[in-house]
Amino acid sequence: MADRPHLVVIGAGPAGLAAALTAARHGVRVTLVDAAAQAGGQFYRMPAAPLGTRRPRALHHKWRSWERLSGDLDRHLATGRVRHLADHHVWCVEREATEPGPAERKATGPGPVVRGERPRSPSRAGRSGVAGGPVGAFTVHALLGPRQERGVAIRADAVLLATGGYEKVLPFPGWTLPGVLSAGGAQAMLKGGLVLPGRRVVVAGTGPLLLPVATGLAAAGARVVALVESADPRALARAPGALAARPDKLAEGARYAARLLRHRVPFLVRHTVVEAHGGDRLDGVTVAALGPDGRVVPGGARRLDCDTLAVGHGLLPHTDLAGTLGCGLDGVAVRVDDEQRTDVPGVWAAGEATGVGGADLALAEGRIAGRSAAARLTGRAPEPRSRAAAACRARAALRAFAAGLDSVCAPPAGWAERVTDETVVCRCEEVTAGTVRAAVTDLGAGDLRTVKLLTRAGMGWCQGRMCEPAVAGLTGCPATTVRRPFARPVPLGVLAGREERDNGEDSAVRTDGRAASATAADTGTGTGTGTEADRCESSKDRRQADTDRQ
């Protein structure tokens, strides 16, 4: 097994699982690295084993897909074709070689094979901006343990990034009150911990994630006071082609609607939360109707009593590791070709990192990426298009559907105008909207980096992943993708080289980095939906603890 090419797949959600299993099935040795204790990602998040859940399928839909994936994973783990490294938090991927070594020469492949065309050479493909094949050795650096202070380095012939996405939450007055959390965070509490975030819950924002969150909470016993969606689902009719290509998605939406009806959950479309109320914690929200232009209709506001608000405004691709490697982006997503290859040789990407589109699209992209990586690494030409046609057709249809959905589920117009100057925008550094606005109007900032330098918004634990969309909306500065050297905080002991090379056999013993005394200044990334807000809160807690000690 050790003489087989080695592919490291980062992320064990739907895309990573599909890619790892496909690549292993086609003759590649795969190491599946993930920060969570169990495979599955946010979509297939499972309760911890000590909870002894008897019917975990009650928290999920598409359970049969999970059974097939987990069954295949168990079989590949048993044969040694796949190694699963849980609780490994990847902070950097280093490309060690720019010129191909002997193993890499064998694995170097031509560019995408298109019937009727001659395969491209790697050099030509590189100039065209599309990778020709794996030509480098990689080292994946990860942190281990509950305190993430021990380092490990994993060598690989190629890397596949399935790093998922993270949730976007836009601010409004009162959004920092205890009892307000992200929609993904509420779902994670329920799926992973079997915990309800509250008894009377309002689910609000925009995007398809709100439906499973609201139905899941209602089925688990919470009283969902309302599901507040700022978009108008009828606008999907503007994309009839995308809808016709994926009728199963329409049926899925209808099933969620039926569940909401069964639990008597009011569904308020073209409404938005404009303010959260409370003293020590949340006790209600004000929602307002939106007009055809997406702006609040005067006189259309009303109060809903609740103790919890689960709010989300969509997802953003997780591209930190791709940026570190120098992968190109299309907008905010990793750019890939028809085989899911990035424009860095030896690096593939699949799932939400290449564009948010849901679990089905992630599975399709993962299978395509795994098949391509296996072919390139074993020195074979990729499978004829006819054999991969089904996955490619599914990917195309799902991408079209996701694009249609994305065009509808946008935050309401004028949301930034309703954010008061006193509202905290950057929760890590406690920077208010007034300070952010003043950076532009009084100090002349013209881009997000200058706003960050002048206000500290985005300099905290999450490095702007939570607040950057809000700062962009408040200032009118275009959102930019920041290239960070590290994807999460790293102990200095690990940076100094005190980490153990993984030998591919055992991941339990690591070099101890406990002597580290600080974390890197440019830090932080999420590993899944709903984590960044928690980290912001943790950052505040640490500062408060420091103050108390003083």
Automatic annotation (TrEMBL):
Q: Which residues form the FAD/NAD(P)-binding domain?
A: 6-362
Where do the segments described as Disordered lie? Answer: 97-131, 494-550
The cross-references to InterPro entries, in alphabetical order and at most eight, read: BFD-like_2Fe2S-bd_dom (IPR007419), BFD-like_2Fe2S-bd_dom_sf (IPR041854), FAD/NAD-bd_sf (IPR036188), FAD/NAD-binding_dom (IPR023753), Metab_Enz_Cyan_OpOx_G3PDH (IPR051691), Opine_Oxase_asu/HCN_bsu (IPR017224)
Q: Which GO terms describe its molecular function?
A: oxidoreductase activity
Give one Pfam family: Fer2_BFD
Composition bias type Basic and acidic residues, residue spans: 97-107, 532-550
- The source's domain of life comes to Bacteria
* Composition-biased stretches (Low complexity): 514-524
Where the record annotates domain BFD-like [2Fe-2S]-binding, the positions are 424-472
Keywords (alphabetical) are: Oxidoreductase
So which residues are the signal peptide here?
none
Does this UniProt record's set of keywords contain Glycosyltransferase? no
Per its record, how is this protein called by name?
Answer: FAD-dependent oxidoreductase
Q: Which organism is it from?
A: Streptomyces griseoviridis
